Amino acid sequence: MSAGPYADAAGLVERSAAAYTAAVPDRPEDDGYFGPASVTWRVSGDLSAPVAGLRSLLMQALHPLAMAGVDQHSAWRRDPVGRLAATSAYTATVTYGDRADAERAAQRVRVIHEHVRGVDTVTGLPYAAGDPALLLWVHAALVDSALAAIDLFGTRIGEADADRYVAEMAVAATLLGVPREMVPATTAALGRYITDTRQDLRCTPAAAESMSYLLDPPGLDKEIAELWQDIRDAAVAALPDWARDMYGYPAPSTLTPLTPARRTEIRQTLGVLDAVFLAEPGVLEARQRLTARMRG
Amino acid sequence: MAAAIAGTALAAVGAVSALRRTGRLRAGPAVSALGRRTRRLRVERGLAALGLAARGGARYASSAPRLFAAAGEQREKLRNDLALQTAEDVAATLGTMKGVLMKLGQMASYVNDGLTPAARRTLSRLQDSVPPMSPELAAQVVTEELGLPPERAFATWDPEPIAAASIGQVHRAITHDGRAVAVKVQYPGIAETIEADLGNVALLRRMLKITVPSQDVDALLAELRERVTEELDYRREARNQQMFADYYRGHPTIVVPEIIGELSTRRVVTSELAEGARFAELAGWSQAERDLAAETIYRFVFRSLYEAHAFNGDPHPGNYLFHGGGRVTFLDFGLVKYFTDDEMRPLAAMVKHLCLDNDPEAFRRAMEEAGFLVRDAPLPTELVIEHMAVFYDTVRVRGPVTMTGDYAAAVTRRFFDFRSPLAAYAAIPRSYVILQRINLGLFALLGDLSATADWRRIAEEIWPFFQGPPSTPMGEAEAAWKSGRRRPART
Lengths: 296, 491
Fold this sequence. Notes:
Chain A is mainly alpha-helical. Chain A has 14 helices and two strands.
């Protein structure tokens, strides 16, 4: 675990927006790996997406080897916002880009992963970022978080669509090198996989440190910071109980119970955050490109 | 100019009262030097802590596109693909605070300089983000409201909207009895979602702090909630517009489209279709034409106030259509305030005492009666007059005066003059708050037109305590209309 303070989080919205607009193609060659009729596009465009993203990071960080890879190799501490923006750019490209875009982006990540190897100081275990087992955890955490967030704070999808989403998303894992047969293709399989993986998870000091940074990022514009509190509460509330316990966060029932009224409040905050995001250059146009194709 | 000026003056004191309400400023007798300095600092800090309505009408929002056509070619191309097709689409686009934020943006378009640049950008992008309803969705609302699909409720129905409206859009149609009409159709479900979002006071307060950081958040919140709630029910607007239409029926230059009552409901309002030049086009008209248009707007504002005791509170340039020869159509009666006799009396008295009688003490007493100035404030009356006079500049003496942007700006500056010794003793009762918006807006509008007239003489025609003879050809025509009218409408 490298030492040193984190850079502040200024520009989080701006850089996420830039990543998003760049990822939504003007003239795609094809519909990519998902396309306008996919559940994935609907889920990714849902208001609950910021909660999904934050919950997903909270889940991913609980894998000591995945966390060590990020902590020891990436610019995470020096430029956490850049690192997050790179991640969201990648995710958005795979989601909305045409196949060539998605493959190029995945190839770049695989090359980077080649160099991310080391030994986790907490468990003493060696790791490699290209290890399908780690990649699969990162993938599963993201898919599970999108479903949890949309169910609690978004426009709910039914069980059938949830299954379709898990199945659709499998290709994202394979793009990074996870063998297809390892990737859960139903919500039930996803649940089983997460339960089975729990034994490998723990909150290392690096995870605790990184996540407390994320939950309360210094340097956010004041207005965003106030909105972020709701997003943070929502992401923590959406965690499985065991994950919340690992971090030592209080259960939402003891603090601010997740009543229907509270959920509405969080949705309203998400709406405001979305309006702020929408005002960034190119975001509205990118949305319109997607909407036109989805209505097409 | 009378009431307008009175109104503006009120705006000035109103600004101060906003400070008072928030406790940033306390009225009181002489203060120690230290106390004075502290107060000065507080005043400066709260300098812009005005009600939203109060702020800088000297400039209009340059954007605020009301017509889809104005939003650019790209938008035009996309709009059919993007049309809102279901109530769920409406909720996704305007729900979860976005509709409320848009209303906030519309209100704030009158107060440009109170907004942070980021907030202005966000609000204007938000407006751009709302596509029109699909023809089917609009038809569905009409069907629910009128009991018949639009093609049967009307003889002819144009499924393509001609303009965006407040939380809805406008369609052209022809009624079965052959009248060309404009039909404003509200987005389905918008009232419910906005009402729910208005309930989140904590978040709204936070948003207002972000959007207009320097202003009195509670006053703004109250105004936002009241205004938006009113606008959700189109029947109120229909009633207001019909009152004005009745009042001005047959007027030589003032045109108010009639409401078609049987085709108007909570979410649909049908009125006669008006066509004419937009405000921006007046730039290309002769100054004589612009002067005439300005005279009509001026007469409309003050006749409405003094005779109908009604004030239309939305001086947006988009709410006028111009026909030449001074004929102006007035649109959008979503925000109308009616005044009681008791509320009107001191307004008129202030004008009379200052401009006619030149009686400063009486002027001051009228201010006190209206509640604009606390009684027995330790201030010399000359100081009160000195502070207030600018608001009455255009009607204190006879003779032609040209309205300019500079004058509008000067009024605004004085309005913000919190260093004025009056500041600590001034207040603005809630029932007069609306006047400030109109007055600052009206001055800016007339300034934009560089309009010249003998405003004093026109005011004399209208002042109920003067009833002067017609001073212009338009005045002659108006006098003829007045004498031929059966009886003035009164609310």
